């Protein structure tokens, strides 16, 4: 009987822990991305992401990112940038004293090519992460690679998919993997909207996320 009680206790504890992660709950990421062209060779990246453990609430993360892009040519872009990330790592909605704050510097290189109607984009990114957990701070480094494929369906509609792997440069090498698929629509010549699904895989745990992303790429160059 004691063994049975112990087994049931461990099982209940395990189920409770699993629920605390929010793994079985659909979350949502609401995002904005902008590439603001300021000259023939330079543009400014602007980005804001608001991530939730549930589709309509339960805050998980806010990410604000900017950077300076150098357009080597139409198919190659180099970027140096900065990001600020505020994260609540607990599924339950606690007060902000459990939040971590991160200042991040990143370097990025994008290569584009076309095969038939398919548009390919290779994104290579290095990140230096300075994280404040409240009780202690930590510095981490990681590399990321994303392969993205876009297929135009019409002049207005398209589909987009990517897979991105995160590699830690300390401790365990594998960080996470993101698999994404979305339908998109061109709203205007320089803006579009994507609605899709993201499978965010970590070691031993997976999260399902609805993604809604607005892209706005204005040309801010002075007209001659």
UniProtKB/TrEMBL annotation:
| Name under which the protein is recorded | DUF2490 domain-containing protein
Q: Which InterPro entries match?
A: DUF2490 (IPR019619)
Endpoints of the signal sequence = 1-18
User: Which superkingdom heads the taxonomic lineage of this protein's source?
Assistant: Bacteria
Pfam families tied to this protein:
DUF2490
Q: Which UniProt keywords apply?
A: Signal
